[in-house]
Specification:
The chain is an alpha+beta fold. It is built from two helices and six strands, in the order βββαβαββ. α1 runs parallel beside α2.
């Protein structure tokens, strides 16, 4: 089987697909002036777009790993997350406190989904 790569660069691919599973790299918001909820909303919109590129969507999420620089931001992040998922079944998920790439990056999200 062939591995498909989306926007592959020197460091990473934005997504890879193998054996019917789409793996999306760690995504961050474009507007770092937003709070954690706003950054999460921007990231989730990016995830929607990438999944659509491969003919899938959030209803087929398998796993999500969410990274927060401050676990005190978890309620706002969860608010955006649950609004985005609506009534859909929840994927397996981990939420990890971590130092991220820049001081103003509050949230990073990695997901995988079935095609």
């Amino acid at each position: 089987m062939t591995v498909e790569h989306l926007n592959s660069g020197e460091i990473l691919s934005q997504a890879t697909v193998y054996n019917g599973v789409v793996n999306v790299c760690g995504l961050t918001a474009d507007d770092m002036s937003l709070d954690a909820k706003g950054q999460t909303e921007q990231i989730l919109a990016k995830i929607d777009n990438i999944l659509a590129t491969y003919g899938t969507d959030k209803s087929k999420l398998l796993m999500a790993t969410l990274y927060l620089t401050d676990m005190g931001d978890k309620p706002g992040m969860n608010e955006a997350w649950t609004a985005w998922l609506g009534d859909l079944e929840r994927p397996a998920r981990a939420c990890v406190g971590s130092t991220l790439g820049t001081a103003d990056t509050l949230v990073e999200i990695v997901v995988s989904a079935a095609k």
